């Protein structure tokens, strides 16, 4: 405890709270506990599922904020066991530890240091789950987190959870939550689930539509969609953990989104709430599609700001065009969507992946799960959006040729990304050719097309017409 | 003729035949007879004005009987010793430039200046292709005229490369020399700044309007060319898009004439809105530079800033444009590059780092005019006027539009009234009472805000 005063601890890696323990934090926790019907002596159980960068940071932020209130809340994170840390990474981790006095002291104090020396020397194999207990995320080695309670058994992790944070890639969400549903078969209480996943899938029959991670969770577990929320926004996980000022948006039913926004909000992490779950979740996936292309353009033109701008003009107009198919009032997405896109294009692993492909340092055959980076969600999203927008049942009128075409024909960048990343019939350089096609429409024309016709298809997001 | 690929060639980068055709089309449109060359004059030698003239010279300069391209700048501006030393390094590091100067017997004056034995003038180095605001990017040699009357009296096409703050003054002088003209010239303006006039009703004065008022040339003959322009990148053949806005008679043929493989020019009829948006983005570019410097290039903080400044820009477009959504993509794309790179963002960074201060003024040696500063004042004054009040959705009372634009207000306090330091921009962003930027857009879209009088329209 901090005695009489309301002292504020500023250390980014403190084991305790970064806000006053006596005041706001305990109040916020108590409000949430009450809403979930927790009585004294029954802690609120929050579980992060999946230990990618953002999932780990999210859990660590909660641990730092609320972990000091041990009788009222327990925070843990699940990840699969058995993932080894290779020798090069172990060496790098050792350097990180030794360069950070606070981290070094903490490990020494917890008698947890020597295994890293052994790992450095190659005398011992370290595992991702054991280093995560000490706060090292395999996808974010340079940014040590606070120590976390790590559980590698999924049943033990989630069976009694009150709040589950989905930190899995969308490509693993369905599978893991189907397993979770077995352990929840006899539950009485219904948990709240917050999903951080940004990928999407396309389902083509009986009607073409997008399957979002929250819908996957709903289908896999039977938890009502009212209890499932999406948290989106720009997230360079290491920057958020280092207290860079960031905004996020929690989307879902009103019952949960407002109290959760309040609970999650911190001085440097502002959380707004929004009722439109599906559109924001889908847009989170859409921007990753174009982030890959942005990375390619940046690398191929040696970071030319002018070429980035040309790319941005075209990709934003395609995104706006696509939002007109998916949302009833798409203009309202314009500012926030493009702002999120801005950071996703600037930095982030999808843009990084595009750069590496363009430089030849990575190849498509290596797959979309990259060591040290995690899953590149944009790749599967390219496939999902392309397949969806290629369906002839969604045809729109091409104003120049005055004929019906699939929407994807008006999205040349998406088409080109599909050719580069999925069917692989075009080299990475083709992205520049797509941009430099003189017959390409002024991006403003594409927006005008979208705005001058009624394109909205409620069925694409599973809404009832 | 074949296609020449050398990007520093004095000749064409396209087949001669198609270029000559484009030139002939334009000459025909302007009524030029054989033996009477088309005269194109760039007025003002900032980075973009110089690059624009150089692109035309590189492309069409070979057709000496059909077109003459020249650039006007004021005489007498000296090149300081440090810049002369740097220029000498640039010259010596570029074999093509060095060879050219030696061949033209124009090299030794740079040696003398390097040694401090001679003072160079901006107009004399521009003849050799060196723009004072863009020393690192040598251009092709240009015909430089320092007498304004001699430069413009018989011009067919005038390119306005002046800052907006000098446009009215210079074109008023030009109108004296044009008093007895028979033909009406075509004017393309590159200027991005604006002014605010508060009488008889508050409205914006754009550079094209200034030119129209100063010279009497009809608006039909005045066009605005906008788009992201990092001048040195465009000259180095980075792929770029631009948009020429104005009356149909001229904008389509000029778009065709100006278009090159690496410089795509689209045409658009909405002159006023695009010209103003070109100015608006410079306002927020300064703030972006401040945020970048204060947060050590944090992408997360840049994104927060971008969300708020784009929502303010969208809000402002709803006051100025009848169909503002159509600006969303291109406006924000231009904003993207302006925030990333460009002298307004650079200026914001320098202020935040303490390497420059507002007292030094908004014309910086080596960079040129920072148009965003005067634009902050113009937009702030305009949007502060009580006759433009809008309903504040939370407090349910009328407020001036500027009250819903906290970033613009803060930039005004930092740059104009100077009652706050650069750090205030972060405080404005981190105010927990700040509305979700989406709400600002929703406010704009849910009410009819459009005020034609702001753009001088009925």
Automatic annotation (TrEMBL), chain A:
GO terms for molecular function: glycerol-3-phosphate dehydrogenase (NAD+) activity; glycerol-3-phosphate dehydrogenase [NAD(P)+] activity; NAD binding. Residues 276-430 form the Glycerol-3-phosphate dehydrogenase NAD-dependent C-terminal domain. It holds the Pfam family NAD_Gly3P_dh_N. It is found in: Cytoplasm. The keyword Cytoplasm applies. Coiled coil: none annotated. One of its GO terms (cellular component) is cytosol. Its EC number is 1.1.1.8. Belongs to the NAD-dependent glycerol-3-phosphate dehydrogenase family. This is Glycerol-3-phosphate dehydrogenase [NAD(+)]. It comes from Glycine max.
From TrEMBL, chain B:
It holds the Pfam family NAD_Gly3P_dh_C. Residues 270-424 form the Glycerol-3-phosphate dehydrogenase NAD-dependent C-terminal domain. One of its GO terms (cellular component) is cytosol. Residues 142-243 form the Glycerol-3-phosphate dehydrogenase NAD-dependent N-terminal domain. It is an enzyme of class 1 (oxidoreductase). It catalyses: sn-glycerol 3-phosphate + NAD(+) = dihydroxyacetone phosphate + NADH + H(+). It is found in: Cytoplasm, Cytosol. Keywords: Cytoplasm, NAD, Oxidoreductase. SUPFAM superfamilies: 6-phosphogluconate dehydrogenase C-terminal domain-like (SSF48179), NAD(P)-binding Rossmann-fold domains (SSF51735). Its EC number is 1.1.1.8. Its main location: cytoplasm. One of its GO terms (molecular function) is glycerol-3-phosphate dehydrogenase [NAD(P)+] activity. GO terms for biological process: carbohydrate metabolic process; glycerol-3-phosphate catabolic process; glycerol-3-phosphate metabolic process. Belongs to the NAD-dependent glycerol-3-phosphate dehydrogenase family. This is Glycerol-3-phosphate dehydrogenase [NAD(+)]. It comes from Glycine max (Soybean). The lineage of its organism: Eukaryota, Viridiplantae, Streptophyta, Embryophyta, Tracheophyta. The gene is LOC100794592.
């Amino acid at each position: 405890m901090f005695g009489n005063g309301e002292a504020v601890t500023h250390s980014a890696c403190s084991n305790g709270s970064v806000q006053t323990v006596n005041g706001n934090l305990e109040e916020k926790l108590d409000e949430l506990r009450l809403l979930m019907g927790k009585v004294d002596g029954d802690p609120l159980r929050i579980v992060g599922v999946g230990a990618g960068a953002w999932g780990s940071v999210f859990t660590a932020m909660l641990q730092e904020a609320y972990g000091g209130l041990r009788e009222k809340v327990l925070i843990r994170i699940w990840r699969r066991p058995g993932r080894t840390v290779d020798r090069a990474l172990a060496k790098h981790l050792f350097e990180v530890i030794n360069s950070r006095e606070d981290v070094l002291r903490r490990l020494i104090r917890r008698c947890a240091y020597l295994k890293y020396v052994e790992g450095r020397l190659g005398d011992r194999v370290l595992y991702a789950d054991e280093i995560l207990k000490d706060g090292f995320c395999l996808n974010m080695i340079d940014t040590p987190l606070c120590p976390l309670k790590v559980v590698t058994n999924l049943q033990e992790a989630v069976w009694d959870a009150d709040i589950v944070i989905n930190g899995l890639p969308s490509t693993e969400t369905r599978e893991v939550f189907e397993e979770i549903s077995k352990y929840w078969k006899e539950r009485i209480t219904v948990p709240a689930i917050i999903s951080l996943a940004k990928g999407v899938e396309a389902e083509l029959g009986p009607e073409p539509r997008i399957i979002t991670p929250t819908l996957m969770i709903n289908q896999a577990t039977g938890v009502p969609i009212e209890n499932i929320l999406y948290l989106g926004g720009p997230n360079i996980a290491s920057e958020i953990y280092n207290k860079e000022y960031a905004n996020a948006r929690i989307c879902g039913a009103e019952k949960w989104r407002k109290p959760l926004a309040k609970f999650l909000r911190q001085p440097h992490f502002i959380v707004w709430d929004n009722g439109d779950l599906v559109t924001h979740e889908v847009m989170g996936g859409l921007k990753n599609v174009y982030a890959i292309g942005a990375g390619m353009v940046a690398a191929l033109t040696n970071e030319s700001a002018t070429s980035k701008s040309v790319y941005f003009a075209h990709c934003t107009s395609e995104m706006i065009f696509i939002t007109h198919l998916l949302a009833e009032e798409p203009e309202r997405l314009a500012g926030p969507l493009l702002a999120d896109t801005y950071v996703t294009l600037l930095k982030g692993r999808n843009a990084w992946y595009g750069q590496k492909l363009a430089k030849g340092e990575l190849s498509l055959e290596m797959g979309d799960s990259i060591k040290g980076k995690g899953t590149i969600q944009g790749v599967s999203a390219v496939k999902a959006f392309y397949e969806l927008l290629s369906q002839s049942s969604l045809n729109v009128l091409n104003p120049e040729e005055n004929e019906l075409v699939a929407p994807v024909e008006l999205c040349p960048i998406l088409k080109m990304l599909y050719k580069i990343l999925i069917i692989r019939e075009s080299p990475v350089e083709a992205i520049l050719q797509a941009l430099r096609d003189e017959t390409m429409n002024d991006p403003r024309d594409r927006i005008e097309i979208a705005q001058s016709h009624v394109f909205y298809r409620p069925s694409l997001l599973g809404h009832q017409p």
